Amino acid sequence: MTVDISPLALPRYGEPWTVDDLKRLPPDHTMKYEIIDGSLVVSPRAGVYHNGIAAKLCRLLTRQAPEHLLTSMESGVKVRGGATYFEPDALLVVEAAFNQREADHLHPSDVPIVIEVLSSSNRGHDLVTKRHYYAVAGIPQYWIADPDEQTLTVLVLGDDGAYAERAVVRPGEQWKSDEPFPLVIDPAEIF
């Protein structure tokens, strides 16, 4: 038996990381790789409970979304010309975006809702950094599920290019919206 070992072709010293560099890394199902302004950010993959929340959010959106929208987990989104790349926990995506066979990421214009589930290891990353970059990318809504507080925070992109808090919903409370389509959310279905 032979093992094919390819040398890593990482960025040269002082050069930024790109999505193409991520493709050259060896497969690793234990870590999550993202890029912020050309810097590689490595974090542990989420656990079962965390992924269950993301899956339940996908199911909730799938039941209510029009047919031209699909939910996805951990599909990458490239923002800021490729210098920043995230793998959100869940997304709502225009179905046509998945027809690109060679694409390794989604374009922000195809993502009406991006969702992150907070974890103890990267709360600031999701609450501050990703909030900023998702807004800069023009993604209309950013949802943050907090398992500790059992809240779903809905942020909506304003005319000023920043997110404004639309709702903070707890289990047993219903939040209704017509954006991006008529939907009803009760975090009791999530947590």
Automatic annotation (TrEMBL):
Pfam families: Uma2. Residues 20-182 form the Putative restriction endonuclease domain. CDD domains: DUF820-like (cd06260). This is Putative restriction endonuclease domain-containing protein.
